[in-house]
Amino acid sequence: MSEITILNRVAIGDIVRRTAAKNPAKTAIISGDKRISYQEFNEDCNRFAHYLLDLGLEKGDSVATICGNSWQFLVAIFGIAKAGLVWVPINPGVSFNEKSYILAEVRAKVLICDEVFLQDKKEEYSSMCPELLIIGKGATEAEKFEHALNSNQTEEPEVAISDRDLAQIMFTSGTTGSPKGVLINHQAVFIASLANIIEAGMAKDDIATMMMPVFHCAQHTLVSSFFHLGATVVVIQGFEPESFMKTVEKEKITWMFGLPMMYRAFLYHPSFKKYNLSSLRYCLYAMAPMDRNTLEKGISELGCEFALGSGQTEMYPATCVFKPEDQLRKSGPYWGTASLITDIAIMDDNGNLLGKNEVGEIVHRGPNVMDGYLNNPEETKRSRQFGWHHTGDLGYFDEDGLLVFVDRKKDMIKTGGENVASIQVEQALLSYPKVLNAVAVGLPHERWIEAVTAFVVLKPGEEATKEEIIKHCKERLGTFQIPKEVLIVTELPQTTTGKIQKNVLREQFKNLYSNNPVV
């Protein structure tokens, strides 16, 4: 291997190689009954890297994926990185038109797709990408992803990779409109994943979940962290409470990452007491606040530490952590303290940094910031105005220096001359014992400009009226914060990564008060 490939090198693919050199026989991945050692994982990643290079792909070319969690997907991700190519994960849940747009935008040379996500579009995908590989039993041998692993080329590919080389283009989830391609280099992923080891209490002997979609930055960075350590990752395809608890008991999972609603689903499940979950020691949650009832129950009955991690695709996570020691000491939408690689400040609209207890936009600096937006210099410039990365989130630092999230700028509800943070309303709703999930949005109203409106999903088997939910809110919120209407629904529109799509609710119910005015 030439010196250029090893001097001053910071490369995502090296994570697997280094760990395999130290712990070749250690189990890297558990997927159902399949066990893959670090040596086997590293060799498969190398085989796939060589396959891509033998196709004629050159450093900087894009390889797109439309995949759910699987061991094959992990091989693809790290094989792409080893080849010096650019990984473009596409959320399987977006429309075919959006997928087509992304494939054209990045000029993907190869597409890897789960068979279940082809949806009779095989010919269309084949016409868009020179090479199509399929993960699934129904594909022909030549099409199967595993066909790319038949090579005997198990040595590390010789590719010159620099820390600032483009490694990934991840498209935003689209909860605010059209997705944007976020350009991420090797350094951002590598350093963020190292910081997570310290910030999120990871250990080399951990057995960790890969339950959230690994095409999303949060799960990807955590998996990378565990591969640094030589820990074991358990692949979980989709979440079902009882199946999840069985897996925890069987594999003795020690470290998990999930959405607050997932924790509520299994902690309050009728079969919760049937399973031995004592192996769990650390529970990370993200995407939304955890209501205090669930948090107290989780800490008490699981006997493990809980923490909240925050970040975004543009600022590779985690950027801040609400740590276990603060979980019950502080109440409210806390994001906690900055990670050891991130500077966090609060800024007003004129670029002035604000002091404690002053609300403004949360801004960041650090080695994990994106390179910019693909083919969008205007948005890139706007996102880094005044020399900081702008998140679009509002917040403040409390008297102890902990970051408190107020709301997304776009989600702040302006009602009757008052500003209402939707997250405050949501916390009140989630504290009601019968509520499983809830969201608050502002809808057009002739009198109030925007009316605070709640959408609530009840726990299985529970019944509740909007009147009792509003009464509960009146005991916890100011008069202007109380929902004018509560709609009890069976589900909320979400992205595949679990973010509630408030834009969908705002559009779907924009005429709610014009058709049925509420005082």
TrEMBL record:
Name of the molecule in the record: AMP-binding protein
Superkingdom, taxonomy of origin: Bacteria
AMP-dependent synthetase/ligase domain ranges (all copies): 17-374
Gene3D superfamilies: 3.30.300.30, N-terminal domain of ligase-like
Molecular function per GO: acid-thiol ligase activity
Keywords for this protein: Ligase
Domain (AMP-binding enzyme C-terminal) ranges: 424-499
Family as reported in the entry's similarity comment: Belongs to the ATP-dependent AMP-binding enzyme family.
Organism field: Neobacillus rhizophilus
